[in-house]
Amino acid sequence: MREFSEDYLRRTRRGMWDDSREALEPLDLASRERILDVGCGTGELSRVLAAESPADCEVVGCDADPALLELAGEHVPVVAGDALRLPFADDAFDLVVCQALLINLPDPAAAVSEFARVSSDLVAAVEPNNAAVDVDSSVDREDALERRARRAYLDGVDTDVALGADARDAFEDAGLELLATRRYDHVRTVEPPYDEGALLEARRKATGAGLADDRETMLEGALTEAEYDDLRSAWREMGRDVVDQMETGEYEREETVPFFVTVGRVDGAESEP
């Protein structure tokens, strides 16, 4: 499983669920008593679950990274654990949920089966389709270059980071009763005045640092060293255009990442009348 930094998680999940929580309705959060957020990271989803659930509902975060748990623990109780070997008893929760976790696992169905073991009722997964990301930028070549880099990354990565709605297959393989799949578009906007996160991201583009992070994965696919070098050169030029437009207050960017909320009921669990 890939590891993610605090900065990456906060940057990619910033503002998620701020505009609408309609896609979470099938989780029936108002009736929950104990919820587990697996792979909670810095706790962005945990905080949403706690806000939407009754005041006496306990939301617990679980992650394998102690540094991320320390941050998540500022908002909810946390426990260190592996998604495939959760440190909880059978039926310990009435909802087990994850966000952008299954896309990083080689066997999503095995994880969903483990989620079902510790849930007495529902299991849910919020997973993106990273192959369908859409970018609209005031820098003309940014969208084309990002699509080029994304294709190379998808070709080299060894898990299904475009899982999206296909998480249903993992639920079916794990023997869950499928209840719903809802789409939620996470829109990330960059516009003046630019915050520190946006400025940092622009600098990383201009230096090629962001692309360098994915170099090894890209070269696992069909991309050659020469093609990567050509892509990184064009990427850095694009990044300098982004920085230039930021200096004049002209830069604007909108990125849309489609997420799919898949919800299933554990075999034998009774639905509400």
Automatic annotation (TrEMBL):
Q: Which residues does the UniProt record annotate as the domain Methyltransferase type?
A: 36-118
SUPFAM superfamilies per record:
S-adenosyl-L-methionine-dependent methyltransferases
Which InterPro entries would you find in this protein's record? Methyltransf_11 (IPR013216), SAM-dependent_MTases_sf (IPR029063)
Keyword list, A-Z: Methyltransferase, Transferase
Q: Which domain of life is it from?
A: Archaea
The family database entries (Pfam families) matched by this protein are listed as: Methyltransf_11
The keyword Methyltransferase appears for this protein:
yes
Q: Which Gene Ontology terms describe the biological processes this protein takes part in? A: methylation
Task: Read off the Gene3D superfamilies from this record.
Answer: Vaccinia Virus protein VP39
Please verify whether the record's keywords include Methyltransferase. Answer: yes
Molecular-function GO term, any one = S-adenosylmethionine-dependent methyltransferase activity
| Entry-linked PANTHER family | 2-METHOXY-6-POLYPRENYL-1,4-BENZOQUINOL METHYLASE, MITOCHONDRIAL, METHYLTRANSFERASE
Tell me the protein's name: Methyltransferase type 11
